[in-house]
Amino acid sequence: MSLSHDHIRRLGRLARIAIEPEESEAVAGRLNRVLRLVEELLAVDTEGVEPMAHALELPERLRPDAVTEEDRRALYQSVAPAVQDGLYLVPRVIE
Amino acid sequence: MLNATVAELSAALAAKQVSSLELTEAFLERIGRLNAVLNAFITVEPERSLAQARAADALRARGDAGPLAGIPIAIKDVYCTKGQRTTCGSRMLEKFVSPYDAHVVERLERAGAVALGKCNMDEFAMGSSNENSYFGAVRNPWDHGRVPGGSSGGSAAAVAARMAPAAIGTDTGGSVRQPAAFSGICGLRPTYGLVSRYGLIAFASSLDQAGPMARTAQDLALLLNVMAGFDPRDSTSAERPKEDYARDLGVKIEGLRIGLPAEYFGEGIEPTVREAVETAAAWFVSQGARTIALELPRTRLAVPAYYVIAPAEASSNLSRFDGVRYGHRASAYADLVDMYCRTRAEGFGTEVKQRILVGTYVLSHGYYDAYYLQAQKVRRLIAQDFSRAFERCDMILGPTAPTTAFEIGAKAEDPVQMYLGDIFTIPAPLAGLPALSLPCGFDGKGLPVGLQLMGPAFSEARLLGAGYRYQQATDWHLRVPTQTPL
Asked: C or N terminus of chain B, fewer CB within 10 Å?
């Protein structure tokens, strides 16, 4: 299948990436080339094959439910674009 | 000294023939001289490196130093280094100073290694040429008009140009091995889970693995001995007894069963690459190895499966770059969603955005089963082919890449052409297996060719042993890049 400009606009919205109308053509061209490459997969017979999510066939390790981290809020917030009183600042979402 | 291996430098340090401070100064001087041409490093902080060198000399003087104490090592800029800029090759993290160290960086530092600086790379490790870096392309030390490979292109170029005796890279679909091959050095992708990824900026978490790069298999073993080991901070870290990866360096080739997959010697491979790899295979036979003809018919499906799975995981991993907690934030926006969208449009480069969009597409409603689940099923078929192959052989030999280094710009317009060049490096990560790339000759243009040895899970020592024996008998790894002489 081939992606239309509507598809590209929707994907950009889902991925939170602004795509200007004048870029749309080039983006669609590149994505369509990649989709043509991966289309080869669709014809492979995988009847009865379990999807492989992970290379290590091990169960996820569990650890005791105990606090192991110390408070590093100030350190981690020191690299944030905008903080105030220990909070991350974002544009107003509620009027 | 600039041309010495890690093992040689370690012996010289132990014998007090040289200090870490002298070594570090010498490599920093060479970086200072060559980096304007090669662009292998994004960040170099001489004072920071020299302080580590002084500490390593003190460690050696106290007499409790391991083999890496005082050895300068270059670090791919995907590894977080505390208090130092960590860009991942992206505008998104151009000014990001990491508040903590990656696990591997911690281990190297504890072993007394000296961090020489942060190496250039394809943005977020997405690329096979190092042309996708926000900080510009890296040049191949053998031919400055060509790419060094990617995504660990800066690390590979640094080692090849003798700006560092060793480097650490990461390999998701070939990002350690392919640049090692293009730049004429050695690179190892360890088994998935062997080296902790804590503090590595994530690209595709079911595939990402950290690996060493150096000029000999012996040096890779020395590095891996320090890098490998359980880390509770990485939920995929394997809990295994400690191993010595140098233990098989003395083991003979005789009796080794080497698989040769027909698909790795067929169409699309440059004849000079094939010849060099076949000559290497013949050397193993001359030493008493047995070759076994194999078929890995799903090899051609590895590239499409990878370019569904890796973008899917990337679209999820890179959602963390939202302009709120760290990294770039757009300066003008209408509301919160617009801030996300503009921040990411500005902060990410073309290839990264493309992969996020592909990943978003294959994970979206109506396409998830057809693309993503199907790719995961094909991934299992590919892994099963390897399991069956390793019932009949100890390792699989083939080329690392179908070509030698290409010219800068040659594949920039067509991402798919670039992707197809990853055909021989992608299968091992899909199956979670270790794979080693070694120099095995040159093509007609004088560009290095890489030989790949792939093994079953956790067979690193055996791969490195075979590589070491090969390097005892050949001198490809000793050649100095013609366009970047000592």
From this structure: C
pLDDT for the residue numbered A95: 72
Enumerate residues 6+ apart whose C-beta is below 8 A from B414: A33
Task: Name residue B330's amino acid.
Answer: A
CA-to-CA dists, residue B313 to A26, B106, B286, B320, angstroms: 24, 26, 44, 12
**Tokens 């998701």 sit at which residue?**
B172
Catalytic annotation, pick one of B19, B90, B175, B437: B175
Among B76, B183, B437, B459, the active-site one is B76
Contact B117, B85 (CB under 8 A): no
Q: Residue B230 CB: number of other CB atoms within 10 A? A: 14
What is the C-alpha radius of gyration for chain A, rounded to an integer number of angstroms?
A: 22
Active site residue B76: yes
Q: Mean of the pLDDT values across residues B388-402?
A: 98
Question: Residue B44 pLDDT > 90, yes or no?
Answer: yes
The three-state secondary structure class of A60 is coil
B32 to chain A nearest CA, in Å?
Answer: 29
CA dist., res. A28 & res. A55, Å (int): 32
Q: Which of B10, B98, B151, B437 is flagged as catalytic?
A: B151
| Ramachandran class of A51: left when φ > 0, alpha when ψ lies in -120 to 50, beta otherwise | beta
Is there a catalytic annotation at residue B175? yes
**Burial grade of B339 (CB within 10 A; 0-12, 13-18, 19 or more):** buried
Q: Which residues of A touch B414 (CB under 8 A)?
A: 33
Compute the nearest-CA separation of B457 from chain A (Å). 9
Average confidence score pLDDT of chain A = 92
Among the listed residues B86, B106, B312, the one whose alpha carbon sits nearest the alpha carbon of residue B207: B312
Q: What is the pLDDT of residues B242-290, one digit of tens each?
A: 999 999 999 999 999 999 999 999 988 999 999 999 999 999 999 999 9
Kind and range of the H or E run holding A74 = helix A73-77
Q: Which residues of B touch A19 (CB under 8 A)?
A: 345
Is the pLDDT at A69 greater than 90? The verdict is no
**Taking the mean position of all CA atoms in its chain, how far away is CA A66?**
30
| Partner residue opposite A93 with nearest CB, options B98, B238, B336 | B336
Q: Report residue A41 as tokens.
A: 């997969």
Task: Say if CB B254 and CB B215 are below 8 A apart.
Answer: no
Separation in Å, CA B417 to CA B245, B411, B422: 36, 6, 10
